[in-house]
């Protein structure tokens, strides 16, 4: 059953014509009627003319307008790098003992970074980390000896862009408290990343069929994409 607050929100907004994000942001913010700072979330639907099983989009970007999300970082590394990881702000740091904890299902982090030397051992836990999207990946900068940079990136607005098995991509570009300019800056950075991924996947035609934006507890609106993706 919908709450009294939700019933006051506009209805059937998905049936409206698509609109530029710059015009939708003030409307979305107006619909943020909860007491907490709601996030503004994007949802992209991959063009159904594509063979979704052949499209594998997975990349990370640093949102230029920042991110309000606090990320708990875990680091698997050699003993001589443990202090560096802790000093950089990692909440969970360890070597073989941390790998054993992960193997037992004790996962209390949202992002995992690993040094190349420890990756051989950690790679055996693909069945544990893979389904949760936590397996470190060199392409995403999470398998590296530059632990400080990886931790800093993870905590300063880095987000992952990836499609699920149904061809959908979802991510947040910030919160209601963000300025419109910062939200648009983040949105354009996402579009640039998708454009690059489209080229990398040699996709013909448009990659994205539809795009929507909503707030955490709000209703969604269709976005008119400003770039050919």
Question: Can you lay out the helices and strands and say which pair or pack?
Answer:
Blueprint: H1 4-7, H2 21-30, E1 39-46, E2 58-62, E3 73-76, H3 79-87, E4 92-94, H4 96-103, E5 111-114, H5 116-122, H6 126-129, H7 147-155, E6 158-162, E7 168-175, H8 180-200, E8 208-215, E9 221-222
Parallel strand pairs: 3-4, 3-5
Antiparallel strand pairs: 1-7, 1-8, 2-6, 8-9
Description:
- The chain has helices at residues 4-7, 21-30, 79-87, 96-103, 116-122, 126-129, 147-155, 180-200, and strands spanning 39-46, 58-62, 73-76, 92-94, 111-114, 158-162, 168-175, 208-215, 221-222.
- With 229 residues, the chain is an alpha/beta fold.
- The strands form 3 sheets. Strands 7-1-8-9 form a 4-stranded antiparallel beta sheet, with helices on one face. It has a 3-stranded parallel beta sheet with strand order 4-3-5, with helices on both faces.
- The chain is globular.
